[in-house]
Amino acid sequence: MKILVIEDDAGLRRTVSLLLEGEDYDVATAANGKAGLAKAEEWNPDVILADVRMPGMDGLEFVEKYMADGGSADVVIMTAYGSPDTAIEAIGKGAFDYIDKPFAPEALLLRIRIVEENRKKTREIKRLRKEVRVEKRHGEIISSSEGMREAIRLAERVAPHPTTVLITGESGTGKELIARLIHDSSGRPGAFVPVNCGAIPENLLESELFGHVKGSFTGATVDRLGLFEEADRGTLFLDEVGELPAQLQVKLLRALQEGEIRRVGESQSRKVDVRTLAATARDLEAETQSGDFRADLYYRLNVLRVHLPPLRHRPDEVPILARHFLATYSERLGVSVTAFDPAAMKMLQAYAWPGNVRELENVVERVVVLTDGDKVTEAALPASIREPNGIMATSAESLSSDELSVKKRSVQLEKHLISRALTVTDGNRTRAAELLDLSYRALLYKIRDYGLDD
């Protein structure tokens, strides 16, 4: 590590240099602030020790000028005239720390080691970010697999056109991010308005989508815009569109075909200019054949399809995404967790990730909070990842005859998965329903039936 010593006292300058050279540091010196600036620009040190009181340019002026010029070294101020006010002023101008003279050699070396450790952690975080060699599109979308890159290319290509797009993929694969990418690349001046069709009670969904007029039903005390009108000249994103009840499927089809909506309780239609995007984790084509989803609405939505592959089909992205989330949450939470040890990363790659990228992000945020050192170990990972077979790990040979009921074992597994999803999402039932590929209403019923309300 390179250390520049700026000190007008020649004897002290020599003493500090010898001390640091004895610890195998690379040392250069300057006799005043002006010479120190020139040397710092020429030599690019890692750490600068600067006296406060020097002829011409003093230490505080040096710090201010050095930082204004874009200096990257950590500056430690040395002063025999130290006071709390001087320290605060120096740090306010950009100094990393200060030390009062006279100081013991051990005290100075301790300051240097603290600076060195801080720089090491900063470098590690930068290295971690650089190592994440991914293609970023629209902020949060991270991809390195061909399947995701193709989805992004298709989304960007269709964005300028008013074509209705159906985005398919399992929960947690990033369908809303793709929808936002399409909207932001479309040039439409209106808002991006997302709605989860499975999270709104059925009796309120029509009013939510199309609005209502005063007096149209009990509690309708004022006129209210629906989401279609809020998205006028923008984009309406219908997430989990497969959850729409049959009567609303008819009204949605009319809105898409005619470009007009009718508020609840109103006799006149209103024109709207809305780009509609829809997403589902369900097989709507199969549901049209079974009669559970209207075929005409499906064909209207499925003009162009963008499919997002599940994370288990792109395992090479797990380390990339895990390191990205690790760097993100380490910075956001103000901690220095900078790496996964090989055993922990191996477990992450072996896990099937039923909740896809969303589950991976939740797990990484959890381990960042719970890890004490700078490296995530396998012990910090949730039990479901350390023991991925969980409740189903028991071999059939070890089960007694009264434990072979498929129905009973399926109920146990379902209860376990719901409990796990609620734990992963910190009790957020909407997010848990997405992880489980259940509608919000179905999840509420199952939580009640299994006694998981607490």
Average pLDDT, rounded to a whole number, is 86
Label the overall shape.
Answer: elongated
CATH class of the largest domain: Alpha Beta
Largest sheet, strands/sense/barrel? 5 strands, parallel
Written overview of the protein:
It contains 19 helices and 16 strands. Mean pLDDT is 86; it is low at 130-139 and 390-398. The two termini are 56 Å apart. With 454 residues, the protein is α/β, with parallel strands linked by helices. It has 4 domains: 2-131, Response regulator (Rossmann fold), CATH 3.40.50.2300; 145-309, P-loop containing nucleotide triphosphate hydrolases (Rossmann fold), CATH 3.40.50.300; 312-388, Helicase, Ruva Protein, domain 3 (Orthogonal Bundle); 395-454, Arc Repressor Mutant, subunit A, CATH 1.10.10. A 5-stranded parallel sheet has the order 2-1-3-4-5, sandwiched between helices. The radius of gyration is 31 Å and the shape is elongated. β6 (135-137) and β7 (141-143) form a beta hairpin.
What attributes does this structure have?
single chain; 454 residues; alpha/beta; Rossmann fold; Helicase, Ruva Protein, domain 3; 4 domains; five-stranded parallel β-sheet; 19 helices
